[in-house]
Structures are given as structure tokens and as C-alpha cells.
Specification:
Layout (H helix, E strand, L loop, with lengths): L2 H10 L13 E3 L5 E7 L4 H17 L3 E7 L8 H27 L5 H7 L6 H17 L1 H11 L10 H16 L4 H15 L2 H17 L1
Parallel strand pairs: 2-3
Antiparallel strand pairs: 1-3
Length: about 220
């Protein structure tokens, strides 16, 4: 491909700001000047091919790059795979987990329950905390759609007019309901607890009503 064409296509795509703190799932030289961040869907065939290519790149030039995975499923029912592959990283470490990921992308994704059981993967507080980081990134990636849904409900108002904290709580709640397998009731309750801690009564009530609105639409 012509370099100018490639740069034009690259600039036409949405830009997402990432750093080493976006995800702890990192490989290669963690102090490298070049960070390669990959938004990967555990059930995506092109993502599987990219995994093998990047693994090969690291095996040849591992000291030059830091590779970072951000797991993201595009179907609510499959988001459990994100948590389990995060769990695999913390269980096996950055070296041995590559073999686990190889096995997953080869055939594990077609029998996920058996695979998770075979590898002894469990979700604990560390995994949940990392999953929260993935939620934050997911909110940024899907901010346009999330805001459109929020503004549909917030008649004569907009989410951008809310305070930064209030808007963040509402966006995270909407993201979890739309893009993860967390039960809606749990998502609403988590948002309410955050609102009680960091926001005011008006915002808490708004979150409750919005959650009920979403539930009614499903």
C-alpha cells in the first residue's frame, strides 16, 4: 500500500489515547520506548491471526517493543471471555500465558467453558480491578453511542452538561449494561452506589430512572 494512502486512512479513523496504565496485560520489554496497544476480541478470527503475528514479532524483536492487550468482546454474552483471559495472565505470567492464548485462539474459543475449567481460571478481585480498566477504555471507545443513548433519555438536557464525575458514573453504567454480561440490576446498583459516594441525590435518581428506562427497552 502507498504510504500516503496508509497515512490518510490512519488519520481518518478514530483516535484513542492509551498508555501503559490502560491495561496490565503487557509483554516484551516493559520499558521499551514503543508501546503497541491492541484492542483484541477473544472470539474474532482476524484478532487470532494478529495474535500469532505479534507473538512472532516479539520472539524476533522482543527487546524493542512492549505489546499491550486490551480485551474487548462486541457481544454481551461473550464478555466473560475477557475476564477469563485476564485471569490467565495473572495465573500464568507474561511468558507462559502466551501458550495459553495460543491454545485459546487455536480452538479454545470454540469450547470456552471446557477451556476455562481445564486451565483452572477463576475471577478474583485482581481480575475484577483489571476488568474495570477495560470498562474505562470501553467507555472511551464507545463514547459516541453511549452519549447518544444517554441524551435520548435526558430530555432538554445532555450528558455533557453533567459534572465530570456524574457523567463518568452514568457512562460506565450504560457501558456495562450494553457491552458486558453483568446483569442489568447489578449495573444499576453499582452506579447508584458510586453516585451515593461521589455525587448527589439528583444524579442518583437520574441513574435509577435511566436504568429502568434501559431495562424497559430490552
Amino acid at each position: 500500500m502507498n504510504e500516503n494512502v496508509f497515512l490518510a486512512l490512519l488519520k481518518s479513523n478514530e483516535y484513542y489515547d492509551v498508555s501503559c496504565s490502560t491495561s496490565q496485560i503487557r509483554f516484551g520489554n516493559l520499558r521499551a520506548n514503543i508501546l503497541i496497544s491492541v484492542l483484541t476480541n477473544p472470539h474474532c478470527e482476524p484478532c487470532a491471526k494478529m495474535h500469532y503475528r505479534l507473538n512472532n514479532l516479539l520472539s524476533k524483536t522482543g527487546d524493542k517493543y512492549c505489546l499491550q492487550y486490551v480485551f474487548s468482546s462486541f457481544e454481551e454474552s461473550l464478555s466473560v471471555s475477557n475476564k477469563m483471559l485476564i485471569a490467565a495472565f495473572f495465573k500464568y505470567g507474561s511468558v507462559d500465558v502466551m501458550k495459553v492464548y495460543d491454545d485459546w485462539f487455536t480452538n479454545g474459543k470454540y469450547r470456552k467453558e471446557e477451556f476455562f475449567l481445564q486451565k483452572g481460571l477463576l475471577v478474583d478481585s485482581i481480575v475484577e480491578n483489571e476488568f474495570v480498566n477495560e470498562i474505562v477504555y470501553g467507555v472511551l471507545k464507545n463514547k459516541t453511542k453511549i452519549d447518544e443513548m444517554a441524551n435520548t433519555y435526558l430530555k432538554d438536557w445532555s450528558i455533557d452538561r453533567l459534572g465530570k464525575t456524574d457523567g463518568a458514573i452514568l457512562r460506565m453504567g450504560i457501558y456495562e449494561m450494553l457491552y458486558t454480561d453483568t446483569p442489568d440490576v447489578v449495573c444499576i446498583n453499582e452506579a447508584i452506589l458510586l453516585a451515593k459516594e461521589y455525587s448527589d441525590e439528583k444524579v442518583k435518581n437520574m441513574i435509577i430512572l435511566y436504568g429502568l428506562f434501559l431495562l424497559a427497552q430490552k
